[in-house]
Amino acid sequence: MAAEPEVVFVDWSEVHKAVAQLAHRMVSDGFIPDAIYGVLKGGIIPARLLADIVNVDSIGFIGVKFYKSIGETRARPELTQPPTLPVRSLSILIVDDVVDSGRTLQLAIDELTRYGAREVRSAVIYLKPWSSFTPDYYYKVIDKWIAFPWEIGECLREGLKLNYFKEIRELIEETVRRL
User: Fold this and answer.
1) E strands, 48-165, where?
2) Which uninterrupted H or E stretch holds 39?
3) Could you tell me if 22 and 57 lie in one domain?
4) pLDDT band at 115; cut points 50, 70, 90
5) Residues 136-145: pLDDT tens digits?
6) Phi, psi angles (nearest 5°) of residue 130
7) How many domains does the chain have?
């Protein structure tokens, strides 16, 4: 039996701090994209938060699936949703929650480039130290499994024990058991 990975639960306060720092770095670089893209599913919320801070109205999504479960990936990332907005001749920021191997984000960048984006930069909240890909902007490097506040049900279904507000965790656990 494999040992349970060490999990870091990231709360909303930490997410907002991370996104604020990412936005600050982008603006300090003079980079305000024409559109922001989130990688489904983990990049949706950080993309929306970044768009709000840097005042970008165009938000699109691209679906890339790589993980099957905690620590288990497919042979290669798979495009599950093409870009939802036109990107031709635009500067794009692609956002995800974590870069682990880097293959998911690289596929998303390749697709946006293939669809004609003029420039594609990347931002993530967390970067794993072993990643072969370093995004343009990241908040922190971390070597643990991360549980975000938008994936509590998923983490519980995976059997992770989350140190979360007890009453919320119990309500979510009961709901997950009923499914």
Assistant:
1) 59-69, 72-81, 91-99, 119-127, 137-141, 145-147
2) strand 35-40
3) yes
4) very high
5) 999 999 999 8
6) -95, 0
7) 2
Alpha carbon distance 153, 148 (integer Å): 10
Which 3 state secondary structure label does DSSP give 60?
strand
What single-letter amino acid sits at 117? A
Side-chain half-sphere CA neighbours of 166 within 13 A: 0
In a domain? residue 23: yes
Assess if residue 2 is contained within a domain.
no
**Exposed e or buried b for every residue in 25-36, given b needs 16+ CB within 10 A?**
ebeeeebebbbb
CB-based contact 59:33 (threshold 8 Å): no
Domain that residue 29 falls in: 8-146
Q: What is the residue type of 101?
A: S
Whole-prediction pTM: 0.85
Alpha helices in the chain (DSSP H): 12-28, 44-54, 103-114, 152-157, 166-178
Name the residue among 63, 123, 67 with its Cα closest to residue 93: 123
pLDDT tens readout for residues 62-99: 998 866 555 556 667 778 888 999 999 999 999 999 99
